[in-house]
Every structure is written in C-alpha cells, then in structure tokens.
Amino acid sequence: MEQVLGDEWKITPAGGATGEAYFAKRDGQELFLKRNSSPFLAVLSAEGIVPKLVWTKRMENGDVVTAQHLLNGRELKPRDMKGQNVAELLKKIHHSKELLDMLRRLGKQPLTPNFIIEDIQQAVAFAKIDQPEITQALTALIQKLPDVQCDDHVVCHGDVNHNNWLLTETNQLYLIDWDGAMIADPAYDIGLLLYWYIDETDWKDWLSAYGLELNDHLIIRMYWYVLLQALISVLLYHAKNNEKDKQMWIERIRMMLGKMNGH
Known about the structure:
Blueprint: H1 2-5, E1 10-13, E2 21-26, E3 29-35, H2 40-46, E4 53-58, E5 64-69, E6 73-75, H3 84-94, H4 97-105, H5 113-127, H6 132-143, E7 154-156, E8 165-168, E9 173-175, E10 182-184, H7 187-197, H8 203-210, H9 216-239, H10 243-261
Antiparallel strand pairs: 1-2, 2-3, 3-5, 4-5, 6-8, 7-10, 8-9
Helix pairs in contact: 3-8, 5-6, 5-9, 6-9, 6-10, 7-9, 9-10
C-alpha cells in the first residue's frame, strides 16, 4: 500500500476476513483503503449508500486499490435498527435501478428459493449432522417453496447486522461491507432485520416506513429466509467445531419451525 500513497502516510490493517482493508492517515486526513473491491463500490458511492469514493488506482501487479473518506461516526446499536432512517435507506437500496443494473452487468443472477434449496441440500448432506432439527428445517424449507416464490428481485445486502450500519456525526446513515451483495427477494434483508431487531407488534409500522404492507405472503417469505439463515449458521458452526454457537442456532431453528407451522 505504501507504493500507492507514499511514505508520508501511516498505513495500518483494518482487520476483517479478507485482510485486504487498511486505514491510512496523514496530517489529519484519514482514508479507508481496500484492495480489489468490486466495481459495485463506485455505484454504491454515487448513490450515497457508502462513504464517498475518493479515488481508484491500479497497481503494477494488476490489483485495484480504492480509497474512501474515513468518517467520524458509530455503528448502530440494536435499538437503533427500529429507526425510520434504517427503513428508508433499505428502501432506497432495494428500489435502486442503478445498483441492480450494475450487479447484473457483473454477472449476478437472481438467488431464487429453488436455487438456494439445491445448494443447502448439498451442504446438509456434506455436513452429515445427526440432528433432527436439521432435517426438520430442510423439510420445512422445501415444503414452503410454493408459498415463497416472488417475482420482485432487488439488490440485497445479505448481512443487515447492526454492525454494518454507520451513522456519522452529521446523522448521515450508511450501510457498509457489501462483499455478500446479491440479487434476491427483498424479504431476504427485511426478514432478518425485523426478526432480530424489531418486536413483531411493531413490524407493521416499520414496514410502513419502508413502503410495504404486512401480509401473509410477506410474513412466510421472511420466516423462510430467517429459517434458512439459522440452518446456514448451524452448518457454519458445525464446520468450526463450535458446539456452543451451533446449539444456540439449533434452538433458533426450533423457534422458527414453530412460527412457520402456524402459517
């Protein structure tokens, strides 16, 4: 990174799973650098969904480095997720034709429930977990396939955890970390956000701020994606030999199965 910015910049790793992100500081100026970001980042910046992209540079080895302003702010807390600003930003993302066009140009295909089931069946078979809840979850996901079909495909973030929302000192809200972006049913994002952060009694009001009406079709789609995420999490922690978190997600599968059986 030094050859991109020069010796006068202090560069430190930013952590993260890929090890491709860095902080850079010089004379009070701070940048967030990332190696080989998707071209999608430029559109997210132009739409005001992530902090502004300052520049993009190609290195001699072919790597592309992007720089964004490092803003003073904080991650949202769980209680902040019920705010109207969250609903409005997610609506903006899901309704952006520019974001959808860019992901399509990058070769992304819609992630439909049928495609998802094929993948998750293979993953479950590979994991060989002797746990009745796993079989029950997979059976429920397959049985509900006819009820969760949706023709509305939008750009979904895929991980709307409160840690990925950044609120600046000027109250500008951003949604960051787009490595898992996909084209899918908006219920993928909405379901996870509502289920983990908003009381069900408040779902109608939150969805009203987003611009959707709460109905049975939306509810069953949201439940379906929440159950899917719980199943994926069990497989993940099983692979990591993390029994504690695996059991926590198995308990959440039980809860979701109870809710889905009521619909």
